[in-house]
Amino acid sequence: MDEADFEGTVVLEQLASIDAVDEFFDAVDSDDTQLAAALMKRARIDPPTIAMVIEKMQQADGEH
């Protein structure tokens, strides 16, 4: 998956379906990539999308 195909809304919708949006944003804010990945896996987000989100988290380290 390349960045042009990335759709963050889908990620949030799937996280909302398991009531994990707040927990996900807490993980992002604390740079906890392991928790963010675990939540996305639990929400049944596909591995390429998870990888893209984790990459974006690492690129933004300290910039959010």
Uncertain segments = none
> What is the N-to-C order of secondary-structure elements (H for helix, E for strand)?
HHHH
| Strand percentage | under 5%
The total count of strands amounts to: 0
What would you report as the Rg, rounded to the nearest angstrom? 11 Å
Sketch the major β-sheet.
none
**Which percent range fits the helix content?**
55-70%
Number of helices in the DSSP assignment: 4
Structural class: mainly alpha
User: Quick check: average pLDDT?
Assistant: 88
Query: Tell me, what's the shape?
Result: globular
Q: What's the structural domain tally?
A: 1
- Rounded to the nearest angstrom, the distance between the terminal CA atoms is 23 Å
Walk me through this protein's architecture:
The chain has 64 residues and is an all-alpha fold. It has one domain (3-59). It has four helices and no strands. It has helices at residues 8-17, 21-29, 33-42, 47-59. The radius of gyration is 11 Å and the shape is globular.
